[in-house]
Amino acid sequence: MVPDQNSVTRRRLLTAGAAVSAATIAGCIGGDGNETDGVEQFHFTQEQSREEQFDPVVSNDAYSFQVIQLVFDGLYEYGEDLELQPKLATGEPTVERDGTRYIFELVEGATFHNGDEVTASDVAHSFTAPVEEETENASTYDMIESTEVVDDYQLQVDLGDEPYGPFELATMGVTVVPESVRTDDREEFNRNPVGSGPFEFSELQENEYVEIQRHDDYWDDLEPNLQQVRFVAHDDEAGRVSDIRSGDTDAIAGIPNDDWDVLEGEDNVNLHSTESPTFMYMAFNCNEGPTATPEVRRAIAHSFSMQDFIESNAGNVTSPMYSPIPPVVNEVWEFPEDEYQELLPEYDPDEAESLLDEHAPDDFSPTIITPEGIRAQLAERIATRLDEIGYGADVQVLDFATLVDTYTSGSADDYQMYLLGWTGGPDPDYYLYPLFHESQAGVNQGHYYEGSDGFHDDIAAGRNSADQEERYDLYEPVIREIVEELPALPAFTQDNTMASRDYVQGLQAHPEVTRNPTLVADYTNVSME
């Protein structure tokens, strides 16, 4: 659920182009001279609005997690790519009992911002709370059967009778929270979190900005160059571009496709880009209504050209997708993308009209719900092409909160199609289980796809195996069925893009959207010079 992503140790709804009206950042001066109480601030303009949930146990929003990842440390964290490295752990875990038991050793002396030491009890709580509290992140951790605190610096995690394939790739990268502080007042913790990261929470003005400041007693050797950081959400693409060009912000995320060439030629502006593990898609209501019929779904896919849309609207910042597995993930797994591309319906308005005439009601005019931005443009393109063959569509551009409440209903009165995005990590499970397994209907998906015999069983079996070849054999038919039956039509994968003023040093785009901006790490330390 951005999705934005993403990735990652949990699912991330990407709302690229979404929604909630954020306050403008007029008056925010960048590194050329903005100071608060004599301290220079780094201003980062986010691509989209946040849910304003900063408790990692609860948060399932990529843009809130861009703040969280600087305030909290993980047991393991991504380095420059999508490979986990020890952070609060001393090294790799000891694996026992045929891959179903993990024993973690914690570094000694790591402390939260309130001075409390990070202990195995805190890590155990971070692993188990998402399931116990029935959060949207439960599926990331529900394979854990039990945890045992051996001592303050050693934790045993048992997975039950079966291994879990993505555990070492993602799950053990859990973001660690202080159990006692969090459980004392969860609502307060969600708005004023206490972590163990290089920055501490400073101020939240909802729907305006979040400020964090350098934690001078950070337990790790890393010391951020930046003293204060302000995150401001700015949904308006033109506004973000104007702000970076004028120097009213130090860096922005999400460079609009049409402005790439403009910013590339701009003096005093640097561009940063990398391919990301994102899956942008249009899902069909398979629960009820005309789109529960596969022929109707195929007709809509025939009615427009996804390739033409991408080339004309997003060629600088996206790449086409032909399955729910992003290309950067497919590079590792080598699913037959060329075959999937051939299976997807090509642009054929005559076939689209014929299928709709036969299988859809005469007055068929589907409702498409979407966030703002590139996917709203895609929705309008589909509506235009359907209108050309005598049907049309009602496009509703919704804010993030309304979109989430609406798409999970599965009601044909609410929609027939919705456009969203997902970000994950280097494993097919991140995309197949939350977005297509029946257990996640109404949680992270609104298409309610019943699937063929064995469809859901194979998705579940894939996550309960540590053998990559076995998992490939389970996942490949699932992916093929999704491409053929189209509960969700693959659209494109987005690049993670940023632009910064030239006095910003050390900024680079990370493939996982929630790691942007990485302000301090073993491989970089952002500064303003």
TrEMBL record:
Name the Pfam families for this protein: SBP_bac_5
For this protein, the parts annotated as crossing the membrane are: none
Is Cell membrane set as a keyword in this record? Answer: no
Any one GO CC term of the record: periplasmic space
Listed A to Z, the keywords are:
Signal, Transport
The protein's matches in InterPro entries, at most eight in alphabetical order, are given as: Peptide/Ni-bd, SBP_5, SBP_5_dom
| CDD domains assigned | PBP2_NikA_DppA_OppA_like (cd00995)
Using the record's annotation, list all stretches that form the Solute-binding protein family domain: 83-441
Going by the entry's taxonomy, the superkingdom of the source organism is recorded as Archaea
**Is the Signal keyword given for this protein?**
yes
Question: Which family does the UniProt entry place this protein in?
Answer: Belongs to the bacterial solute-binding protein 5 family.
Its name, as the record gives it, is ABC transporter substrate-binding protein
